[in-house]
Amino acid sequence: MLEGRGRELPCVPLLQYKPHRHACHDGPVFRETDDLPGAWYYLKSDQGRCRMLESELVNECGSDQHPMFGQRVEAVACCGTCDEVLFKLLDQQGWAIVHLTWRRETDPSWPACEVVGSWSNVLEEMIDHGH
Q1: How many domains does the chain have?
Q2: Which segments of 16-117 are extended strands (E)?
Q3: Residue 129 confidence class, pLDDT cut points 50, 70, 90
Q4: Tens-digit pLDDT profile for residues 37-90
Q5: Is the pLDDT of residue 3 over 90?
Q6: What is the extent of the structural domain holding 49?
Q7: Which in 72, 78, 82, 115 has the greatest CB count within 10 A?
Q8: pTM of the predicted model, to two decimals?
Q9: Are 65 and 111 in contact (CB under 8 A)?
Q10: pLDDT category, 1, cuts 50, 70, 90?
Q11: In degrees rounded to 5, what are phi and psi of residue 39?
């Protein structure tokens, strides 16, 4: 509590993250109006760039052993300081954060990819991203 003009005032943070919750979910629900952490930003306003990133992912996943090979995806967000892209998985529930290499890959470990099942896990990965 803070003291002000003879009375105690509650301490309230100026910025407080309040994720949207849905009654059927334990964690935050994806909404493109929410702020993203760090240097991440939404791509919705640039549909041409979304299609280009989706095509690049298909191009890079040259091995049928890669977890993203053959996946239908939608590009949702990018990190402004590196080549990581957030894709929504369309044929299953979940998300993939992929580090694009900008070349055709045959090694199934590239492009580097983290598949996560919930929006709260996506936010955690973005925060852990480090920039």
Answers
A1: 1
A2: 40-42, 73-79, 84-89, 95-99, 112-116
A3: confident
A4: 889 999 988 899 999 999 999 999 988 899 999 999 999 999 999 999 999 999
A5: no
A6: 2-128
A7: 78
A8: 0.74
A9: no
A10: very low
A11: -90, 10
Q: Report the distance separating Cα 40 and Cα 126, nearest Å.
A: 8
Q: Which residue has the tokens 């549909």?
A: 47
Alpha helices, DSSP H only, in 21-118? 47-60
Residues in the chain: 131
Please state, in angstroms and rounded to a whole number, the distance separating the CA atoms of residues 119 and 48. Answer: 24
Torsion of CA 121, 20, 99, 42, to 10 degrees: 180
CB 80 within 8 Å of CB 131? no
Cβ 85 vs Cβ 100: under 8 Å: yes
